[in-house]
Amino acid sequence: MRQDRKRGEKPASASVQEATRDERLHLAVVACGPRLEETLTMLKSALLFSAKPLHFHIFAEDHLHGSFGESLDLWPSVFQTRFNYTTYPITFPSENAKEWKKLFKPCASQRLFLPLILKDVDSLLYVDTDILFLQPVEEIWSLLSLFNSTHLAAMAPEHEEPRIAWYNRFARHPYYGKTGVNSGVMLMNMTRIREKYFKNDMTSVPLKWVELLMPLLQKYKLNITWGDQDLLNIIFHHNPESLYVFPCQWNYRPDHCIYGSNCLEAEQEGVFILHGNRGVYHDDKQPAFRAVYEAIQKYTFGDNLVQSLLLPLEAKLQETKHTYCGRASHMFTKRLKRSIGILQQETIEGR
């Protein structure tokens, strides 16, 4: 059962309410299994630095709904006024629900159906649970304004270095570009997705999104490794004009530093969004990634961001310098420092 919670809404004129709705940024996540705390930490990072109001669309197994509500309701009221959230059950087309649910990771393929479920949402940022925002959500949201008339989604490359990339070496299916794309951070114009007819290799007739997904799964289910991400790669292989590719600092993963630094944009501008895939927030394989996760997780809303978040994180990152990613950890804090500085300036100015 879908549940809506509205935060801090005061009586206002219809025009003011409409303006508020228009500027709200929509963020979706799919949480199954032991992902509650990881998801809450991601949502916390989104809320910490963003000035614009957010609407969280949380797709989760039924037994997690109560825990999400209880946790979000405990966040301080000054922060609760800045977000709404809606929880949704995990739902797939009934005739193939079991196949969709077991694809790659539990429930991950739910993201493919977001344009069909969230019919009233025009644009949406989907992120995996293991994402951490190091700058305001509105920064990536602004990329929507860079879309041309054919773009309907945006993602980062799966790899920067073809010699260590997965898709060009191992894939048994079509994929986008030279090294494929990673779907852990996916910005969508869902109105365009719902309206477009997609070229495909199953029929000479272009298909709408709702018509495309099931035939795609049936054709490629024995040849895909990364589940729904592979299906998205197949779709955009045949429709490359529909994808806007943003640089790696918007989806920075261990692969960008474990073999030496290979994300030039992050070296220049810092990491914008950290993606701790393969469970690195919860093991000792990449302590620099874990340090960022634990710093945000342990931070208490309202505490001084420099004293209670930035400085403890920098101290912890110093202990990771023996690792490749630890040597690149100055990139993890570069954008974070900027985000904190902007918030402090706004506090001084009384915004």
UniProtKB/TrEMBL annotation:
<dbReference type="InterPro" id="IPR051993">
    <property type="entry name" value="Glycosyltransferase_8"/>
</dbReference>
<dbReference type="InterPro" id="IPR029044">
    <property type="entry name" value="Nucleotide-diphossugar_trans"/>
</dbReference>
<dbReference type="Pfam" id="PF01501">
    <property type="entry name" value="Glyco_transf_8"/>
</dbReference>
<protein>
    <recommendedName>
        <fullName>Glucoside xylosyltransferase 1</fullName>
        <ecNumber>2.4.2.42</ecNumber>
    </recommendedName>
</protein>
<comment type="function">
    <text>Glycosyltransferase which elongates the O-linked glucose attached to EGF-like repeats in the extracellular domain of Notch proteins by catalyzing the addition of xylose.</text>
</comment>
<keyword id="KW-0472">Membrane</keyword>
<comment type="similarity">
    <text>Belongs to the glycosyltransferase 8 family.</text>
</comment>
<keyword id="KW-0812">Transmembrane</keyword>
<dbReference type="GO" id="GO:0016266">
    <property type="term" value="P:protein O-linked glycosylation via N-acetyl-galactosamine"/>
</dbReference>
<keyword id="KW-1133">Transmembrane helix</keyword>
<keyword id="KW-0735">Signal-anchor</keyword>
<keyword id="KW-0328">Glycosyltransferase</keyword>
<dbReference type="GO" id="GO:0140563">
    <property type="term" value="F:UDP-D-xylose:beta-D-glucoside alpha-1,3-D-xylosyltransferase activity"/>
</dbReference>
<dbReference type="GO" id="GO:0016020">
    <property type="term" value="C:membrane"/>
</dbReference>
<keyword id="KW-0325">Glycoprotein</keyword>
<dbReference type="InterPro" id="IPR002495">
    <property type="entry name" value="Glyco_trans_8"/>
</dbReference>
<keyword id="KW-0808">Transferase</keyword>
